[in-house]
Amino acid sequence: MPDRRTVYFVSDRTGITAEMLGNSLLVQFDAFHFTRHTVPFVDSAEKVEEAIREINATAERERKQPVVFVSIADEAASERIRKGANAVTLDLFQIFIAPLEHALGARSAHAAGRSHGIADAGEYFSRMEAINFAQSHDDGAATRDLAKAQVILVGVSRCGKTPTSLYLALQFGVRAANFPLTPDDFSDRRLPASVTPFRQALFGLTIHPERLREIREARRPGSRYASLEACRQEVREAEHLMELERIPMLDTTSKSIEEIATTILHRTGLRRSVF
Amino acid sequence: MPDRRTVYFVSDRTGITAEMLGNSLLVQFDAFHFTRHTVPFVDSAEKVEEAIREINATAERERKQPVVFVSIADEAASERIRKGANAVTLDLFQIFIAPLEHALGARSAHAAGRSHGIADAGEYFSRMEAINFAQSHDDGAATRDLAKAQVILVGVSRCGKTPTSLYLALQFGVRAANFPLTPDDFSDRRLPASVTPFRQALFGLTIHPERLREIREARRPGSRYASLEACRQEVREAEHLMELERIPMLDTTSKSIEEIATTILHRTGLRRSVF
Question: What pTM does this model have?
């Protein structure tokens, strides 16, 4: 039986940052089973007290102090939780504000609502445009405006192009198109005609045939498309074509969407703005 | 002239968490202009030294210590950066490990590569399924399998349904469909027939007509669709219909995608798993 512990993420905004950092810490304690609760939008004295009451009820019920990750810009609110909650409180925000103020020689605004809020209109529209772009240029659906793509992912069906394009757009505001490499392209031994003018924007994704088989099998069980033989042949020919055309290539087999997207930005030198 | 400062995000993985937390701190210092560099995948002694060299070259060139956010699980590597870099170093990871070890009465694994890496196969497939689902159930494109939707967003064209559905899938692994409310529905004074069986999953998005006009205008300049009159009428009728049908409603006007998605999960009580 693993040790159990309840964890809270308390934030004055969405709680996404607190969850991400908190999870990267918790995953280091794999003997534990953590039950997670996110309490977002804690931006008033009433909501602070409500959060404290919930945490303290859990502490009493479980006879164990919960772990509480707090990400609140307002100093008094965050202090109130540290003092009022019967918990191990880790303050992700306040702990860095003082050293930053010292380093920059300036006072911080201590204002909530600046992170994961709406950006200025220009940034907002460019992110929306990136999302629309990825959506309308998925799987070779549109060839119009391909010149506007900052990156065009190519690879066999189900190697990870779609989620990566969407993630590049949503998380990094990058205009990403994607284009399948199909058996037709392999018999011609060349790239799809619509993408050849944009060779410098191409980025190849590849995958182990065994893994590809699993993914395709979940989608179309028992099909020729999902057979190991078809997967092996397509992957081999796609890799051959990409090498021939000197397209940079990334193996997605054991990588998360975040890792694939970040690696592409890193290798291509595309500017990333994290939202 | 705002003060300038160069900021590094140094991570053994994607750097996404470091950027998010770092940005939420930096935005508190709005008198500064920050130039940001992300150095991801710093997972070897060589890459640590390379990062230090780059940081120190910047410090010398700018005659100012850069601010360095470090998120590295390996203690020795992170200490090497703290000591070797001519910079203000803020360690997002190590600073919380010791108090967590104390609180849990256990040693951490101090292992890199656990955050934003590939999850277990089950989680991976359910996230992929959510992404495929959002993609194929965008804008009422598919009515098949709507019963599998955890949430179905409804609202007028361009009120934020598509990016929110994609974000719910990508970031939270939630199966979200979305369905437009159109002038046809308003003249019938009822919901589109395909969504009525799933009333309990419906969630309405709305928006100020002036803001909607801006967004539509950017898409189809000068059209009747983008006119303030059309926007006003559609929003009024959509809101009326949603009230009539008692569908929960959220105004997206001044909200980011993250805030809209988080609020929907918060209000509906859907379980969120942050990736």
Answer: 0.90
